[in-house]
Amino acid sequence: MSHGQSNANQDSAAPHFKRVLTLKDLVIYGIAFMTPIAPAYIYGFAAQSTGGMLPLAYLIAMVAMMFSAYSYGRMAAAFPVSGSTYTYTQRAIHPHLGFFAGWAMFMDYVLVPLIVFMVGASYANALIPSIPYWVWVFIIAGVITVVNILGIAVAAKTNQILVLFMGIVVVIFVIFCMKAIMGEGGASAVVSITPFFNSEKFVMTAIISGAAMACFSFLGFDSITTLSEESVNPQNDIWKAAILSCLIGGIIFIVQAYVAQLVWPDVNNFSSADTALFDIANVAGGAVLVTLYTVAIIVSTFTAGLTGQASASRLMFSMGRDEVLPKKFFTHLHPKYKTPIYNILLMGSISIAGALFLSIDFVAELMSFGGLTGFMFVNLSVIVYYYFRKKEKKFVRYLVIPGLGFLICFYLFINLSPLTLKVGFIWLAIGVVYALITTKGFKKLPPSLIDS
Question: Is residue 266 part of a domain?
Fold first, then answer.
């Protein structure tokens, strides 16, 4: 048997995913991860911190995230394989640096399903108090884990249904808000510049702070790139999906924040900043709209949980395939469904434990560390790979845009809380120790790169 035939047989025998995801599936996947009703989680505090100009903060955040979305798209076109941040940094800059990028991003992917389990269980318990919080955690975790094991196609169809439902709720919310606005001041009251610029309350530092907070509503578009090996046309669809999901999600967030601000102009007078949109929903549509919005938030935990768990399991698969994590465990695929079942079960177990024993505030603070670290690495990867290694001297495309993406993320990163930075760097230090041991002092390369 020839060497080429041997390699071909090895490749065909290697674990591989089914290519079933279209551009529409990928866009919906990204929006599902971000969740259409993401403003519900931060609206009260963010509206107060921006002086009632959260729509402007969301607009700035959307533009800022588009730079990083572009960079993810360019790297996905160059390396259409599973692994996302880890793979791009590994191939474009350095294999060991790729491990740390993946290690940092792994924190974010682990925490996303964990926190949505917590939020979903909390709201479900509030809606049906007779069922304890811990029972809701197991119900939500069980459903999400089973759907992900059944396959990405099943998860994609489930996401389509759930995202459609949330989209309908958002539309209903906006319509009720517009009716309430017109009821107070007529049709002309729907058009106002105040949510974007109020000269009496405008403070640039406050707007930038609000934009930094709003950026975290966009965490999720990057998860699309972990599905490159399950995409029908990864070279063309991944980058389009990353940018489209970021753009569509941003518009959805801006519209909700805009009408909410007009319904409730006094952002310092909520019954609770944590549930500010419920106050607004009650004014706009009464108990029916409040209940519908509560259900939509619970549904959002399933969409974000499905996508978060799927992305983390694919990232672990890629790191296992490169033997930076134990290969036998992390690359095992279910014989029928072709999903990384051990990774999915591990993710489900970690999320259940975290949801039962950690606080939402603590988990929320850590999410940003991994996400922003990953964004910085990917922006740098575009510059190193295209502008310097391939010498494609397209100044704006391969230097200015990713450079701005890096600087924006770095600015947000250095303004994280001291606790977040401390815990985040401890996590990275653990990764350093692990890498030192497995690579024999950074002397051993991943097998996938030895012959490249």
Answer: yes
| Euclidean distance between CA atoms 139 and 133, whole angstroms | 10
* Residues 8-65: tens digit of each pLDDT: 443 444 556 667 788 888 888 788 777 788 887 778 878 888 888 999 989 988 888 8
- Taking alpha carbons only, the member of 24, 70, 398 closest to residue 237 is 24
Count of H-run helices and E-run strands, the chain: 18, 0
Q: In angstroms, rounded to a whole number, what is the distance separating the alpha carbons of residues 280 and 44?
A: 10
CA 140/CA 66 separation, integer angstroms: 32
Could you tell me if residue 385 is inside a domain? yes
Domain membership of residue 389 (yes or no) is yes
Burial of 410 (0-12, 13-18, 19+ CB in 10 A): middle
Compute CA distances 225 → 49, 239, 389, whole Å: 33, 8, 22
CATH number of the domain at 143, please.
1.20.1740.10
How many beta carbons lie within 10 A of that of residue 452, not counting itself?
Answer: 8
Give the total number of structural domains in the chain. 1
Domain that holds residue 423: 24-450
Instruction: Tell whether pTM > 0.85.
Output: no
How far apart are alpha carbons 244 and 26 in whole angstroms? 10
Give the list of residues 6+ apart from residue 78 with CB closer than 8 angstroms, or none. 88, 91, 92, 385, 386
Backbone Cα Rg of the chain: 22
The answer to whether residue 60 sits within a structural domain is: yes
Q: What is the pLDDT of residues 153-171, one digit of tens each?
A: 666 677 678 778 888 999 9
Taking the alpha carbons at both ends of the chain, their separation in whole angstroms is 23
**Rounded distance between C-alpha atoms, residue 110 and residue 348, angstroms:** 9
- C-alpha 346/C-alpha 334 separation (Å) is 14
Are 87 and 98 in contact by the 8 Å Cβ rule? The answer is yes
Instruction: Using the predicted structure, report yes or no on whether residue 217 has a pLDDT greater than 70.
Output: yes
Q: How many CB atoms lie within 10 A of CB 56?
A: 24
Q: Rounded to 5 degrees, what angle do the CA atoms 195, 198, 200 make?
A: 150
Cα 45 to Cα 270: distance, rounded to the nearest angstrom: 10
